[in-house]
Amino acid sequence: MQRKLHPLEGIVAVFALVFVLFITIGFAQAQEAKPHTAVYLRSSSALVLDADTGEIVIDKNADAVTPIASITKLMTAMVILDRNLDLDQRIVLSRQDIDTLKGTRSRLRPGNVLTRRELLLLALMSSENRAAAALGRTYPGGIEPFVAAMNAKAASLDMKDSRFVDASGLSPNNVSSARDLVKLVRAAHEYALIREFSTTDRATVKVSDRGRPLAFHNTNGLVCAHRWDVELSKTGYISEAGRCLVMRVKLASKDLIVVLLDSWGRQSRLGDANRIKKWVETNATAGRAS
Questions:
Q1: Is 70 a catalytic residue?
Q2: 160, 198 in Cβ contact below 8 A?
């Protein structure tokens, strides 16, 4: 004989059912509200954005403010190009261009002579710190007005989390957020020379009349990697910033801006980029199939 439920038991059962439904709906809504965390990334902060629609594809701590290392050089290039300085002007490297903060090495020596165009190429392609320092030093008025112009440019782009103090990014006081750097990449992509130089695979420059030409290569191996279509690129590293990478790429017929900051491990930023590529392409295929 079936036992009759006590009225209180019925009430408890109803509340239990409502509770389960509430939790289930809440979880579903949370998943819907945050659809951008499905791919595992080793970068502490990341943002992937559709450049055409503004849609956020992946978001991980995008508002965290952190040192950005040589991503700074994109701003350096924009400030130089905005001033319409003579790119064919020959510039002599100085001892002032040597990194005394981090002690980074360079094959460029004081006394070497390069054009401003070559310095831009090496700063963007090979992340050459002395090249970037020379660009800032020879800006009209010197490094102080140059840094002021960098911060003014950031303000004009509504980069509220960003601050610049040097041309190379060696100082950890060059800071920004992934959300701000999307704006930086979007603006930098408007400059044909930045697109060209930042995605050049390798180049040779002659730095003195007597010495042999020096060969330099891109610090981002993805610019010439199979099945990668990179339209703009910049890497960065100092200990305080970790491994950083920003790109504008074409994936699954979409133009995407990719920002990866503070990635641990020498190859982890490239690993993250490949994980993003696979995730985007897989989801695009699934979308077409459905």
A1: yes
A2: no
Eight-class DSSP state of 186: H
Give the 3-state secondary structure of residue 261: strand
By CB atoms closer than 10 A (0-12, 13-18, 19+), residue 81 is: middle
> 153 catalytic, yes or no?
no
Query: What pLDDT score does 8 carry?
Result: 52
Whether 127 is catalytic: yes
Active-site residue, from 43, 45, 70, 168: 70
* 69, 262 contact by CB (below 8 A): no
User: How is the chain split into domains, by residue range?
Assistant: 38-289
CATH of 38-289, one of 1.10.760.10, 3.40.50.2300, 3.40.710.10, 3.40.50.150: 3.40.710.10
The predicted model scores a pTM of: 0.86
The predicted structure's pLDDT at residue 4: 54
- Of 43, 45, 127, 162, which residue is the catalytic one? 127
